[in-house]
Amino acid sequence: MAIHIDQTAPDQPGEPDGHGHGQPGHGHHHHETPEQAASISEVLDLDAEVLADYLRGVTGWVAGLLPAGAGRVLDLGAGTGTGTVALAARFPLAQVYAFDVDESMLARVRGRAEVAGMADRVNTVRGDLDRPWPALEPVDLVWASSSLHEVVDSAFVLSSARAALVPGGVLVVIEIDDTPRFLPDDFVLGRPGLEVRLRAALDLVQSRWGHPDWASHLDAAGFSGVGQRTFEIDLPHGEATGRYARAYLARMRPALAEQTAAGALEADDLAVLDALLDDDSPESLLRRDDLHVRGSRTAWFGRA
Ligand SMILES: C[S@@+](CC[C@H](N)C(=O)[O-])C[C@H]1O[C@@H](n2cnc3c(N)ncnc32)[C@H](O)[C@@H]1O
């Protein structure tokens, strides 16, 4: 039977303060309105749908690092469970533990596990990664996707991850390298190069996509055989691509509007973005059939 631990009750605050940068569509949930929080969940869920091939690729690669499979897996900062469910599918005998500070995320993990018929193997642990972790039996794999950049004390989290692993167990840390791109190369609305300019404007205000190179941090935490691999993502238009692009770009719009006000982005570029985001516009992302998802993610690994 699955277990659900809540170590934040009764006197710990439910959410940590002072997280680092947040990526669009990610992080900073404690300062956000319910609408924005919902859109984070939407992006995370859509990741599972749109990036299913990428997820199969990356979990297949991880399985190659664990020739005997995994009996127990810990997903750090699990969000809505995109990694949790992919890992439970990859390791059909494993108990998978989704660890997150946010109960609304963990409720979604449980819902998805139920739908996937994995409720007996998917466990949730509510707690703050920056505080001493609840005692769990040692795990064979620790997975931290788009979450390590959010903690306050990554050295503490990495040493806790090492302590949570069986000897020889594997840690995998994944980060998104860049804002994904969606528009086709021959996109003609407005001036050519819209996405390049949107990204440049975002880069001015955010180190958001800039994550550390975690290799030296894994070394410093005592992991051995540290290495990394980049996964390129280049997916043709699919059923959920428009919703995915819309969710991402809508998350970025407030920062882009600020950049327009500050003179770092031309108003006509913001107007084209608004046409793409307007579901009633003929240019709407939801109506297009020529979107790609292009981007890359880096995975670091090491052994306890
Ligand atoms: C960007 S989401 C990534 C979710 C998921 N790993 C994925 O790839 O879809 C980051 C998650 O980390 C969680 N998180 C951030 N800081 C945390 C902390 N100190 N302790 C526990 N969870 C944390 C957030 O609540 C959020 O669900």
Could you name the ranges where pLDDT drops below 50 across 5 or more consecutive residues? 12-30
Number of strands: 8
CATH homology-level superfamily: Vaccinia Virus protein VP39
Round the mean pLDDT to the nearest integer and report it: 89
Quickly give the structural class. alpha/beta
CATH topology tier name: Rossmann fold
Tally of contiguous helical segments: 9
What composes the largest sheet? 8 strands, mixed
| Radius of gyration (Å) | 19 Å
CATH-derived architecture: 3-Layer(aba) Sandwich
Strand order of the largest sheet: 1-4-3-2-5-6-8-7
Give me the strand/helix succession. Answer: EHHEHEHEEHEHHEHHE
* Integer tally of domains: 1
Shape: globular
Helix content: 25-40%
Question: What portion of the residues fall into strands of 2 or more residues?
Answer: 15-25%
Bound molecules: S-adenosylmethionine
What are the key terms here?
Rossmann fold, 9 helices, binds S-adenosylmethionine, 304 residues
What does this protein structure show overall?
It is a single chain. Helix content is 38%, strand content 20%. It is built from nine helices and eight strands. Helix 1 (34-50) crosses helix 8 and helix 6 packs across helix 8. Mean pLDDT is 89; it is low at 12-30. The structure holds S-adenosylmethionine.
Task: Furnish the topology, listing elements before pairings.
Layout: E1 4-6, H1 34-50, H2 52-65, E2 72-76, H3 82-90, E3 95-100, H4 103-115, E4 122-126, E5 139-145, H5 154-164, E6 165-176, H6 194-205, H7 215-220, E7 224-235, H8 241-261, H9 267-277, E8 293-303
Parallel strand pairs: 1-4, 2-3, 2-5, 3-4, 5-6
Antiparallel strand pairs: 6-8, 7-8
Helix pairs in contact: 1-8, 2-3, 6-8, 8-9
Bound molecules: S-adenosylmethionine (SAM).
